[in-house]
C-alpha cells in the first residue's frame, strides 16, 4: 500500500512540475500576488521559552565525535551511579555493624563461659550495679 501512495505522489509531483512551465504570465502574476498577500497575513512567529535539558557532557556541543560518544553513557548515569554508591555504602555499613554486634556477643559469651561465676549471678540485677562500680 505504501508503494502505491509513493507512486501516486511521484506522478502528481511530476505532473505539477510539467504544468508549472505552461502557466501563462497573467496566471503566474496572480499566483505571485496571492502568495504575497498570504505571507503578509501570516502571523509572525512568537518565541516561546522552552526548557531543553542538556546532557552532562554538553561542553562538547553538537560536534560530538565518535571518540566522545563512547563516553556519552557517563552522562546518562549522572544519577544512577551516585545512587548505586549510596546503596552500596549503606549495605556495607549495615554489614559492618552486624559483624561488630556478632563479635561483641561472642566476646561476652566467651567471658561468661571462661569465668568462675555461675550463670545465675549474671542474671542478678545487683550484679549489673556491681559491674558498673567496678569499672570506675
UniProtKB/TrEMBL annotation:
Annotated InterPro entries: DUF3619
| Keywords, in A-Z order | Membrane, Transmembrane, Transmembrane helix
Annotated transmembrane regions: 73-94
Annotated protein name in UniProt: DUF3619 family protein
Source species of the chain: Herminiimonas contaminans
Amino acid at each position: 500500500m505504501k508503494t502505491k501512495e509513493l507512486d501516486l505522489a511521484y506522478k502528481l509531483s511530476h505532473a505539477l512540475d510539467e504544468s508549472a512551465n505552461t502557466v501563462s504570465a497573467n496566471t503566474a502574476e496572480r499566483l505571485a500576488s496571492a502568495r504575497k498577500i498570504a505571507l503578509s497575513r501570516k502571523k509572525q512567529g512568537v518565541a516561546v521559552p522552552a526548557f531543553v535539558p542538556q546532557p552532562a557532557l554538553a561542553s562538547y556541543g553538537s560536534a560530538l565525535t565518535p571518540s566522545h560518544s563512547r563516553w556519552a553513557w557517563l552522562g546518562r548515569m549522572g544519577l544512577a551511579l551516585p545512587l548505586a554508591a549510596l546503596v552500596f555504602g549503606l549495605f556495607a555499613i549495615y554489614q559492618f555493624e552486624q559483624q561488630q554486634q556478632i563479635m561483641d556477643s561472642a566476646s561476652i559469651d566467651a567471658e561468661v563461659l571462661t569465668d568462675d561465676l555461675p550463670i545465675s549471678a549474671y542474671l542478678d540485677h545487683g550484679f549489673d550495679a556491681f559491674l558498673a562500680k567496678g569499672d570506675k
